Amino acid sequence: MPRRHKSFLFYLCVPLPLDMTKLKDSVFWITGASSGIGEATAIAAAQKGAKLVLSARRRDELERVKSLLGNTEVLVLPLDMEKLDEIQPAVDQVMAHFGRIDLLFNNAGISQRSSVMDTKFEVFERIMHLNYLSVVALTKAVLPIMVKQNSGHLLVTSSLSGKLGSPMRAGYCGSKHALHGFFDALRAEVYNHHIQVLMVCPGYIKTNISINAMSADGSKHGKMDENQNHGISPEECANRIINAIENNKQEIYIGKKEVMGVYLKRFFPALLNKIVRNQAPK
Question: Which InterPro entries does this entry report, sorted A to Z (predicted)?
Fold first, then answer.
C-alpha cells in the first residue's frame, strides 16, 4: 500500500514531550559569564544545583563570580572567543575536569552603535566573527560530545535584534539573524540525539552591552542607552532562561513592550517598519 504522510494538523495536535530538563548535577558551561546575563544565569543555575564552567576573557572577574556561588563545583576557564584556536583546548579541559558537558550557553558577544555608511568594514567583520563564527566553532567542538552522550542542551543569546532590524545596529542585527538560521537548522539535525536548542532573545536588559558596544571606528561606544538603563534586571532575565531550559522551550523573548515588535513584524510589518524608521537618526 502507498505510504501515507502525516498531515500538518497531525503535527499541530501531537503534544510535545513534557519531560523537564533537570539542572541538578548537570555540567553547565557559560561563556560571557563575567557579567550581565551570563553572571546572573550562573548564579541562578548554581541555585538549581548545576556544576558550572565559567568562561570569559578576564580571570579576575570570573573568580569574582565564582565567589558568589557558594559551594557549587566550578571550573574557571578563561577564554577569548575571538581566538578560535583556543576553543578545542578549552573543550578538552572541560572534559578532563568533568567528563561531560550537559548544557552549553553561547552568551559571549558584542553590540554596535553606528550607521552603515560610517562604520568601517573591519567592525562588521569583528562583530560577525565574535557573535556568529565563534559560536559556531564552539558548538561544533561540543556537539560530538553531546551526540555521544545522546543528550545535551544548546543555548544561544540572540536578541530581539535577531528577529527585527534596528537603526545603528545593522552589523549586530545581521550577526544575530545568522544565529537563528544556523541553530534552527541544527535543531532539526540533532533532534534524534535528544539535544535541545534554545534561542534566547532579550530586549532591553540593564547590562553594560551598550557601553561596551562598538562605534563606527571600532572604539567603545562608552554610553548607557536610556532604554537599556530602564530595562529588566539580569536576574529576572536569568530566571526566565532557567525556566525555559527546564521546560525545553525552543525560543523565548525577554523584555517589556519591545517584545511586541516580534508580533508586529509577523502580523503588521508595515506598521513596524514605520516605527523603526522613526527611530533612525534624523
Answer: KR_dom (IPR057326), NAD(P)-bd_dom_sf (IPR036291), Sc_DH/Rdtase_CS (IPR020904), SDR_fam (IPR002347)
CB neighbour list of residue 74: distance below 8 Å, 6 or more residues apart: 51, 52, 53, 54, 66
Phi and psi at residue 79, to the nearest 5°? -155, 125
Count of residues making up the chain = 282
- State pLDDT tens for residues 152-200: 999 999 999 999 998 999 999 999 999 999 999 999 999 999 999 999 9
- Strand-pair partners of 202: 254
Does domain 19-279 correspond to CATH entry 2.60.40.10? no
Q: pTM of the entire structure?
A: 0.91
Indicate which residues carry an active-site annotation: 172
Is-contact 255 236, C-beta < 8 A? no
